[in-house]
Amino acid sequence: MSKVAVLLPAYNEEVSIASMVLLSLQYADEVIVIDDGSSDRTSEVSRLAGATVLSHTTNKGKGAALKTGFKYAQDYDIIVTIDADGQHNPSEIPDVIKPIMEDRADIVNGSRYIAGKDTTTPTYRRVGQTVLDNATYLASGVKLTDTQSGFRAFSSKSIEYFNFDPNGFGIESDMLIEASVNKLRIVEVEITVRYDVNTTTDNPIVQGFSVLMRILELMRFNRPLYFYGISGSIVLFLGILIILTVKASLFTNNIYISAIGYFIVVMGLFLLFFGLFSDTVNRFKK
After folding, report:
1. For the stretch 154-178, what's the b/e string if a residue is b when 16 or more beta carbons lie within 10 angstroms of its beta carbon?
2. Which of 7, 54, 142, 180 has the most CB atoms in a 10 Å sphere around its CB?
């Protein structure tokens, strides 16, 4: 029988943490709460509910909390991550770990959107989610419907491939990209999510932008043809547009604008060729 650990990274979650621990204990051998520098009674309540508590003295971010949790739970066969704010349903843990127990997956991603659009998802969340889903796909080559899900399961052998570099919320996409690079098997299963609970207090636009920047950074190294190809095409289009505008006689006598246009075209072509070169080098390395 596989030994299962559940990780609950938490920051000021004293209201919801007890129920999440108690419900998770029904499906796990151990529930580990990583208290990421909370100023409330998150640690105290977690212990009373029966969880093992690992504490950070300061708030380091979700990525750092997961790193601490995975290090502690590395001897378990399956490690499950769930958000501590109560939006996930621990009763779905058996469904999430099933593909790993059946040796069909190394990582299981819980998704709200397998069956299509979730009408309960706030519009602003879904728009941002779509952008991050597509960016993660371009960076990893793996098409998933819910790349920012915090409800996941990992086989013990998959843990060694993760660097846990970003301390914040970019960790979700980061882990998927690293899994893809190392050819781990990723399967999605359907989960449900509640939105009538208090979630992160971070500005969602700022949070989403920071995640997107992290994805683009990884794309630059892992899939340079996409990164430089897309950016090069945009720059090339802009340069051609400037040149065509000049030739349309709006700025016929302005040699400086023409020079800027040609310079931008050269930069666009350079980015395209650099993307091809970098991609070729990456393929030889593999």
Report:
1. bbbebbebbebebbbbbbbbbbbbb
2. 7
